[in-house]
Specification:
This protein is mostly helical and 213 residues long. The chain is built from ten helices and no strands.
């Protein structure tokens, strides 16, 4: 990962507004809290979620909940970090062995489809994204995530186009990734048929830029 990207990612991670559990028992308790919060967000959205509801559903005291999560923002942050880590692992695995344009086309298309399906299936992800727009720190976390994901794509492009200007490749990859996130979020805001067309159109445009087709 590029040093600048790593620095931004580390900066966002260290700003997380919660206490990290150190003991196994505490980690298991936090997992129950996050699972409860995720279920509540899926049912009613993060705005309507109450800390007392999270504690009750997780089977913990409200004091225990506040020990790790001082407010709802901290819970949303923790869930955002989790989805960020999972997405980066998925993207890294999908792109690390790409050695030709055809393989890149297939892997990139599949990644976009996975991201689209996740947003369709997980209302929590949609709610988290909505929450990031009003929270500067969460926006920075999201931006750091986009830059890190773009770096995986840059590594592939440098292998496929070794003579290309690296700054151009970095700019292209970052823009393509940001546009992909915007396209998927637009797609889930309209009916499914139109959403599918929007995602397909984005993939065609992105692949033309990435591999010239």
């Amino acid at each position: 990962m590029d040093e600048k990207v790593a620095a931004k990612t580390d900066q966002a991670a260290t700003a997380s507004p919660r206490r990290a559990p150190t003991q196994q028992r505490s980690r298991e308790r936090v997992e129950r809290m996050l699972a409860a919060a995720s279920a509540l967000i899926a049912e009613q959205g993060s705005d309507a979620m109450r800390m007392g509801e999270v504690a009750e559903r997780a089977g913990v005291s409200i004091g225990s909940l506040y020990q790790f999560f001082p407010d709802k923002r901290a819970i949303v942050w923790a869930l955002a970090e989790r989805y960020t880590a999972e997405s980066q692992a998925c993207i890294s695995a999908a792109l690390k062995d790409i050695g030709d344009a055809e393989a890149l086309k297939q892997a990139f298309s599949e990644l976009v489809d996975i991201y689209y399906r996740l947003f369709l299936a997980e209302p929590v992800m949609r709610d988290i994204w909505s929450g990031t727009q009003a929270d500067k720190a969460l926006r920075e976390l999201e931006l750091a995530d986009s830059r890190a994901n773009a770096e995986f794509l840059v590594a592939v492009l440098k292998r496929l186009r070794p003579d290309a200007d690296p700054v151009h490749l970095e700019t292209t990859a970052f823009l393509v990734w940001q546009m992909g996130e915007a396209a998927v979020r637009l797609a889930i805001s309209v009916d499914r048929e139109e959403g599918d067309r929007l995602v397909a159109a984005y993939k065609r445009m992105a692949l033309r830029e990435l591999v010239g087709e």
